[in-house]
Known about the structure:
Number of strands: 13
CATH class of the largest domain: Alpha Beta
Largest sheet: 6 strands, mixed
Bound molecules: adenosine-5'-diphosphate, magnesium ion
Oligomer: single chain
CATH architecture of the largest domain: 2-Layer Sandwich
Amino acid sequence: MSFAELFGREPHGRWAAPGRVNLIGEHVDYARGLCLPFAIAQRTVVEVATRDDSRVRLASLAEPGGFDGTLDDIGSGSPAGWAGYAAGVLWALRADGHAVGGVDLLVTDTVPLGAGLSSSAALECSTAVAVDELFGLGLDRRVLAAACQRAENDIVGAATGGMDQAASLLAKAGHALLLDTRDGATRQVPFAPADAGLGLLVIDTRVRHRLADGRYGARRASVEKAAAALRLPSLREATLDQVDTLDGELRPRARHVVTEIVRVRETVKLLADGRIDEIGPLLDASHTSLAGDFEVSCAELDLAVSTARGAGALGARLTGGGFGGSAIALVPLAAVDAVASAVRAAFAREDLRSPEIRTAEPSAGAARESLHGPGTAERVDRLQDEIAALPVVDPRSPDGMLGYDEHGLPGPAGRSR
Ligand code: ADP
Ligand code: MG
């Protein structure tokens, strides 16, 4: 089904936004922590045409259902289902006072759904860049990211943090994006596994989770409860000594958050120093913490991680919300096939569905795909300039985001360098 067959006219353009893989910094975005996602090559593509009225028609080649209503019909829980992610972006921009009108929108290509690769943010962000350009809003990408997050929180009702949207909109090829969720500050961190003879495998267990379900919310609630018990604005401000005073399950939950933020800083330092081959133990420690302290792993993720390590991965961990979805493994290029085969064999032995295994290449953020239309090439150039101008981490100069000492946390390996 094409846009023209569905809506009886041609789209005004085509926009694409990538999914993301979080290298490290898991379940810390709602604790005002640091995370380090990168955008992947897989993209969600939307074709969009503006309308002269306030009607909104949404359809997807990836999912049944959709929406045919007006801007005023969009609100909490409405439209239900996947259309809420796209309609929610229109709603959030309008709520901010931007002049957004009706649209016809067809999702023609997609990041794999529910695989922990953030198809939801890819859908929001492709919609956002399309709407921003078509209605001439000219908004900063950080503003668009915030609107996309509110679409997911307020319209879909999934209590996610802002990491996925920042990665999809702000990522630069060959880099990971260090995101400080306390103030939204970002830094580009060199991350090009292939240049170092490494591959980053993404192992989709094909166990599907839904972030909108209760378990993600329960973890988020524990993290907020722990911060409140410590009388802190968030666990970003907590020390390990403070965490040790917490009772019951709040203690391991908070310990994960606090130690994970330290691991992000250590990873950034190593990457900025060109020591990508040394980050494996940090990935392993992140998985141990997520499985043990945060309890968001599952048998399939644990199997993928332990098998990948046994077959030669430098490090491996679950990525994304957990409870299924994907694991990542950093693997010498020469061992990529052996690791993939070993993981497939281990899943077969356990009578599990065969996992989907891909290599992820750090790729660029959302952009217009079709180059037709007046002034498009210049707009694309401008967006690329904007992304290129985003600051890159420099391990030699002081940077608040890498301030190891501010909370008396254990310093990273290589700190004295
Ligand atoms: P993830 O973001 O990890 O893929 P989520 O549960 O957050 O998992 O989001 C997946 C949901 O997003 C899907 O169930 C669907 O509702 C919606 N979605 C994502 N991409 C598309 C698409 N291309 N077409 C329709 N719905 C989509
Ligand atoms: Mg999602």
